[in-house]
Amino acid sequence: MTYKMKKLSIAPISDSAKMPIKKGTLQFLQDANSEVFAAIVQSLIGDNYNPSTVYVLRGCENTGTDPSYLISEGNVFYNGEVFAVDATSFST
User: Fold this and answer.
1) pTM, full prediction
2) What's the sign of the alpha-carbon dihedral 11, 2, 78, 74?
């Protein structure tokens, strides 16, 4: 799949012009960043990338033993998005 990343044209904006920030502009910038992160992570995963698989990027390690689990904080990549994961503990 080939597509062009989002790029906001700033050509019509001069040094003296003021630009009101609108929700759509902020959403566009946020989406553009998400696309870049997703492309980088997917390229690191390679041809075996599956959007329904959760990939641990950092942390999320279990240091407990059954039935008590101690999961460290970290980040995961799922369905094209990076998520922060808080540290947690639980018992089964």
Assistant:
1) 0.70
2) negative
> Is 55 in contact with 38 (CB distance < 8 Å)?
no
What average pLDDT score do residues 26-52 get?
Answer: 90
What residues contact residue 87 under an 8 Å CB cut-off, 6+ apart? 70, 71, 72, 73
Which helix or strand (DSSP H or E) is residue 85 part of? strand 81-85
Alpha-carbon distance of 29 to 62, in angstroms, equals 35
